[in-house]
Amino acid sequence: MDRTKVIHFRVSDDEYDMIMQKMQQSKIINLSGYLRKMAIDGMVINLDIPELKEISRLLGCNSRNINQIAKQLNSGSESVCNADFADICDKQGKILELVRGVYFKLSKL
Q: Which of 10, 22, 31, 92 has the fewest CB atoms nearer than 10 Å to its CB?
């Protein structure tokens, strides 16, 4: 994108401090980018949702468990530990709860 237009404006010390504080809260590190985003969209939404990290962790655990079950079945083993299935089901339930919580939080935005 070719940005050839320049916009200048002045702010007081207090206004500058407030702009910098809000920029830090938005986690945007470039002042031009922050001001451009605010001028165009009017807001910056920072989606710091720790539940997503937990969802990712649980999905990784389930993937490993499923891979181990597949290896056992592919190696000709006819017995697969029921505890593995129970663990997967338990983690899937937790994932569903977390996803519902994330949807609820996002619906409030």
A: 10
Instruction: State the residue for tokens 């922050």.
Output: 34
C-alpha–C-alpha distance, residues 38 and 11, integer Å: 15
Round to whole Å and give the CA distance between 44 and 25. 10
Structure tokens at 36: 């451009």
* pLDDT at position 97: 92
Reported pTM: 0.53
- And the tokens for 101? 């919580």
Measured between alpha carbons, how far is 37 from 39 in angstroms, rounded to an integer? 6
Locate all alpha helices (DSSP H) within 1-109, ordered by sequence.
13-26, 31-41, 50-74, 82-107
Q: Which of 86, 88, 82 is nearest to 65 (CA)?
A: 88
Q: Would you mind telling me the total number of residues written for the chain in this entry?
A: 109
- The string of pLDDT tens digits covering residues 66-94 is 888 888 888 877 777 777 788 888 999 99
